[in-house]
Amino acid sequence: MVKSRKIRVFTRFKKKKNEEEKVEIEMETQQRQPLKTVEDLHQEVDEVTQVMHQNLVKIRDREGKLDTLVDKSERLEEG
């Protein structure tokens, strides 16, 4: 029961975030200039890697906050 609530909350949040990211990615793709050198490609990969790392940290933080929120709401239901 606890797991299903956590999954539902996270799934709703995830869907909204994915829609926002799709729009942002489309806008960035339209604005990009073609890459000219291998060095440019390496720089792009480094930037993407940094963003991915930051996103993983944010996901971990959000998961902790969601767990705390679910725990608090369960205590409110009980009490």
Description:
This protein is about 90% helix and about 0% strand. The chain has one domain (about 1-79). The longest helix is centred in the last third of the chain and has 41 residues, at about 40-79. It is built from two helices and no strands. It is mainly alpha-helical and about 80 residues long. The two termini are about 20 Å apart. The mean pLDDT is about 80.
Tell me briefly what this model is.
This protein is mostly helical and 79 residues long. The chain has two helices and no strands. The radius of gyration is 18 Å and the shape is elongated.
Biggest β-sheet, characterized? none
| Low-confidence runs | none
Return the string of H and E elements. Answer: HH
Radius of gyration: 18 Å
Q: Helicity, in percent?
A: over 70%
Q: Could you tell me how far the N terminus lies from the C terminus, measured between alpha carbons in angstroms?
A: 18 Å
Beta-strand portion reads under 5%
Report the principal-axis shape. Answer: elongated
- Number of domain units: 1
Tally of alpha and pi helices: 2
* SSE class: mainly alpha
Count of DSSP strands: 0
Mean pLDDT: 80
Salient structural properties:
79 residues; elongated
